[in-house]
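This part of the workshop introduces the protein records we will be handling. An example says more than a description, so a record of this kind follows.
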Amino acid sequence: MNEEELLKQYYETYDEEGRLLSRHGQVEYITTQKYIHTCTRETGAARIIEIGAGTGRYSIPLAKEGFEVTAVELTEHNLNILRGKLDGTEKLTALQGNALDLSRFADGSFDMALLLGPMYHLFTFEDKLRALKETMRVTKKGGYILVSYCMNEPTVVSYVFKKGALREVLEKDLLTENWHCKSEPKELFELARTEDITALDAAAGAARVKLIATDGATNYMRETVDEMDDFTFSKWIEYHLSVCERQDLIGASHHVLDILKNT
């Protein structure tokens, strides 16, 4: 089974919608939306492409706000869910496609690009670089590109040690000597460190504006966050947003958002 088939099989059975709607999943969503809107206000962006749009958690609300959105998604399963949410009033075009090949779009077609999922599932530096360069190509000069990554250290702490998977990952030879997870397509997720992201940006010639911890400490205590009352959760969000740009905390976040400007 190849990489694409493995990924399609995963999303046909995984409740991605439920994760994003959970209280702990909302932290990542609220944070990402905050920075999307900061960028659109600054540049007046109207045309947005989301590459790896999933079930439309970002694309659909943005389209309902009046943005002209093109949602590109690899898996038909996710696309069907996305299309099923539309009522026909949104300026949203949903297409099946791959982050590695955006040749259907001309250079500079969009004011802003969101690459919020594909880097989770690309396993070589060359593929990640190709996806980032393709995204930069279809974004106009001066436009923002927002890229999400899954991070290495939270996986080591939460999965390898907290969930007791140490012996399993050692037997499978899934850790380097310096504790970087070795990801393969059958593992489904590629994990990064901040220096990996910086190296990728440099290779692509991308200009970083900010690197954001989109969920911070949330996933270390997801059960606690899910049980918070509305007041406590609002204060958790307030706290999280006050520290999400602190660079000393970035690598400990399960997800980060790399905000780039296309120069």
About this structure: The chain has a mean pLDDT of 92. Residues 23-43 form the longest helix (21 residues). The chain has one domain: 3-149+185-261. The beta strands are 47-51, 68-73, 92-96, 110-115, 139-151, 191-192, 207-213, 255-261.
